[in-house]
Design goal:
114 residues, mainly beta, OB fold (Dihydrolipoamide Acetyltransferase, E2P), 5-stranded mixed barrel
Length: 114
């Protein structure tokens, strides 16, 4: 069996609907919560309304962190709520900045506890 034969014998995953969203929580092991924002039109008044959906997705390598923009795809049900899998991390979230008080900047030491 040659390399070309094995490539044809391996089944490809079906290209299902891909969704882009922001990771809201990565606290669970191998699971992320992704918030997907979209706009819908009001049936009577025609105004566009902001709506959001929270989807649970499978993250095999635990690579997505909170605040990251990710791309997920539909897959078979993995648990009661999980039916999406992580495809890739599109954009990493910036590191959380340390909160520094004005007193600490001016004096060079942390403020006293009150």
């Amino acid at each position: 069996m040659t390399m070309a034969d094995t490539a044809q014998a391996t089944p490809q995953r079906a290209l299902l609907r891909t969704i882009r969203g922001v990771v809201a929580s990565d606290k669970a092991h191998k699971t992320i919560k992704v918030v997907v924002d979209y706009k819908t039109r009001h049936p009577k008044y025609g105004k566009f309304l902001k709506r959001s959906t929270v989807l649970h997705a499978h993250d095999e390598k635990n690579e997505a962190k909170e605040g990251d923009t990710v791309e997920i795809a539909e897959c078979r049900p993995l648990s009661r709520h999980k039916h999406h899998r992580l495809l890739r991390v599109v954009e990493k979230a910036p590191e959380k900045a340390l909160q520094v008080s004005a007193e600490e900047v001016m004096t060079g030491k942390a403020p006293e506890a009150r």
